[in-house]
Design a protein that fits this description.
The protein is of the alpha/beta class. The protein has helices at 3-13, 54-67, 77-88, 103-113, 154-163, 176-179, 214-227, 233-243, 246-265, 305-314, 355-367, and strands at residues 70-74, 94-98, 119-123, 138-142, 167-171, 189-192, 207-211, 271-274, 297-301, 319-320, 330-333, 345-349. The chain has a seven-stranded mixed sheet with strand order 1-7-6-5-4-2-3, sandwiched between helices. A five-stranded mixed sheet has the order 8-9-12-11-10, with helices on one face.
Length: 368
């Protein structure tokens, strides 16, 4: 972590202090109000629950500190992705998305955007650095991609896309703004599922869009209000609480992932290991520059689907779950969702368990 990142974390933790009166709670209250005292229509901070409310304000303020940008919160990562794409596209437009990225984004492109007249072009993440962006309105990237963990140079993509007249949207869910800063590298919008590491405890669906173009972000805010794609106050509170420990959790998760990846790389049962933090990985070029470290996600293959499922079932310290970024180490066989990976490919999200105990559990399950 850099000194600038440390300063952001400190500001995040104390962002409410300046506005607190004597005796007010340090922790933001959960406001469940949908209506507000409105004797006149102008000048009120809030007027109706679909347009904004105090608990959203608190978590958006935290995220704005981390992103150094305006933030609009949403009830899930996919709601944030939808808002960003809808606000940048219209019928007849072309968008490029990664064919190896999050599968629900691909489904959104196929089943929604294309139905409404948007031309959706899918190509692998690693080909985007040399792809022709002519005629595209949006270049949408995931880096590292999910689940393959391929990376692309965000700054290079942004420069070429802008020269071609396209906007760049970056899904930064796997890294968070503490480990990678797409807006600083030229992206127009960042989208993220705060359900993952920011909330961190697998108990809240949430997402956000961040950007520094005030006109574009106003469109994103209007989309939330008009579509009704609004987060709940309880979820906002949980994400606010989770963000306060994000840096501590990430430090443990990423450090443990680096150790486990190195040990998996030399294990005789493991093949096709992917972890950007390893010097020999194709994505290692992004670490130390674009990415602060290798992250907490690891991909690897076992012999076949049955072997992978047996390993997951036998490891007592791995939750068999489809999300990532939580305090519990979690993993799944990604081919079951239709990802273009080997049948025995496993994506593992390293949690905050003591690493020696976690590795012993993984090693025993592999040997079994």
């Amino acid at each position: 972590m850099t000194a600038e990142t440390d300063a952001r974390i400190a500001r995040l933790l104390h962002h409410r202090k300046a506005g607190l009166a004597m005796g007010e709670p340090v922790v933001p209250p959960i406001s469940v109000a949908t209506t507000f005292h409105l004797p006149q229509t102008q000048g009120a901070a809030h007027y109706y629950g679909r347009a904004g409310q105090p608990t959203w304000d608190a978590v958006e303020a935290q995220l704005a500190i981390l992103e150094a940008a305006e933030v609009v919160a949403f009830p899930s990562g996919m709601a944030a992705i939808t808002a960003a794409l809808v606000c940048c596209l219209k019928a007849g437009a072309r968008v490029m998305i990664p064919s190896d990225g999050y599968y629900v984004t691909r489904l959104l492109g196929r089943d929604v955007l294309q139905v409404y007249g948007v031309d959706v072009v899918q190509i692998p993440t690693h080909e985007m650095e040399t792809a022709d962006f002519t005629g595209f309105q949006v270049i949408y990237i995931e880096t590292p991609s999910n689940p393959g963990l391929d990376t692309v140079d965000i700054a290079a993509i942004a420069a070429r896309a802008h020269a071609a007249g396209a906007r760049v949207i970056v899904d930064n869910t796997t890294m968070t703004p503490l480990l990678q800063r797409p807006l600083d590298l030229g992206a127009d919008l960042v989208v993220a599922a705060d359900t993952k590491a920011p909330a961190g405890h697998s108990d809240a669906l949430f997402g956000h869009v961040a950007g520094r173009d005030t006109t574009l972000m106003a469109k994103v805010g209007d989309w939330r209000r008009l579509s009704g794609s609004v987060p709940g106050p309880f979820e906002a509170y949980l994400v606010h609480r989770g963000l306060e420990t994000l840096e501590v959790r990430l430090s443990r998760m990423c450090a443990s992932a680096a150790i486990i990846a190195e040990r998996l790389a030399s294990h005789p049962e493991v093949r096709g290991l992917r972890y950007p933090g390893l010097p020999g990985d194709p994505s290692h070029k992004a670490v130390g520059g674009q990415m602060a470290n290798g992250g907490f996600l690891i991909g690897f293959e076992l012999t076949d689907a049955a072997t992978a499922e047996t390993f997951l079932a036998r490891c007592p310290l791995i939750e068999q779950a489809t999300s990532f970024g939580g305090v519990h180490t979690a993993a799944e066989r990604r081919a079951r969702w239709g990802d273009d990976v080997a049948e025995g490919f496993i994506r593992i999200s390293v949690g905050i368990e003591p690493v020696a105990v976690l590795w012993q559990s993984i090693e025993s399950a592999l040997q079994a």
